[in-house]
Amino acid sequence: MIPVTKPYLPPLEEYTHYLEGIWKRQWLTNNGPLVNELELKVSDYLGLKNFLFLNNGTFAIQVALKALGITGEVITTPFSYVATTSSLVWEGCKPVFVDIHPETFNIDPEKIEAAITAETTAILATHVYGNPCDVVKIDAIAKKHSLKVIYDGAHCFGVKYKGKSIFEYGDVSTASFHATKLFHTVEGGGVFTNNKELHKKMALMRNFGHDGPEVFSELGVNGKNSEFHAAIGLVNLKKVEAIIQKRKQLSINYDQKLGDIKLQKPKIDRSVEFNYGYYPVLFEDEKAAITCMTRLNRSQIFPRRYFYPSLVHLPYIQEDALPISEDISKRVLCLPLYYELSFEEVDLICRIINSVYS
Ligand SMILES: *Cc1c(COP(=O)(O)O)cnc(C)c1O
């Protein structure tokens, strides 16, 4: 069986080494030494100052919205994972969808201004598949209209734009370290901001607002993560460079083997240092995508319709016509891509897809 992704699992001894330390210290959670070490090492690896390790990438979006005081309408993308939209609704905000660009699959900055109203307070955009949004245009629009910007960077670990981490852009950037992501802590997530006060506020918010054992200086909930999750992160972080390189080689192999049928892929700007988190391909129509998926499934290969459906179809959302997101969500497939995938398996996948076209 070849799934669309497989979580990376390090050699068990490397993890048990950390477990021995946890057993000795008997410190399991609540901002323990491994959580602190992970925060420092991730910041160091990405070249960032303020990073908070959280329980998941969805809470990361929620705490960013809360800490920035976002209310009313938020401009967002219909082409993302459901968590981008559901967190907005959960936090009492109204998502206002703006269609995506047909070449990048990211929110189209040219269409943002037309959607701004007196109620708009923020833009929440996803760097889809780790491909950065047009952060320069988005930041200019946000400044002009005094809006906050949050980037859902769930796919972006290790991505750089113009020489610095993509997490440097916007008021807050979020990350997910879920098991399916390129760098993972089983469950986990993070927020990044260059604003010290905001960082402090989110640190309090993730820990019930505790500012000392008897002082509560913010409204907070439980967004913490544990020593066990931090430990797997510390082990996996040592391997992340090798993981990115292997994914890059596999992606190049896909490009070569699928070259003749000219499937469209998201356009990535030249200033981007990419992380090869996903291998999305766009078929000419929905029928071709489903035919390829069915043929692959017959050989126990499971690509994923990611993202499908377009988020305007969520039951708690007022339906809206966004033709580009609608079209792309129906035609896109993410092909299998993970550290343990072999070049032979990529060859097999490509042979099956090519056979549909011959
Ligand atoms: C995975 C993902 C999330 C949610 O992250 P969790 O850690 O699973 O909560 C949010 N947004 C996008 C785009 C994602 O892919």
UniProtKB/TrEMBL annotation:
Pfam families in the cross-refs: DegT_DnrJ_EryC1
Alphabetic keyword roster: Aminotransferase, Pyridoxal phosphate, Transferase
InterPro entries found in the cross-reference section: DegT/StrS_aminotransferase (IPR000653), PyrdxlP-dep_Trfase (IPR015424), PyrdxlP-dep_Trfase_major (IPR015421)
Domain of life (superkingdom): Bacteria
A single GO molecular function term of this UniProt record: transaminase activity
Keyword Magnesium: no
Coiled coil stretches, renumbered: none
Entry similarity comment: Belongs to the DegT/DnrJ/EryC1 family.
Protein name: DegT/DnrJ/EryC1/StrS family aminotransferase
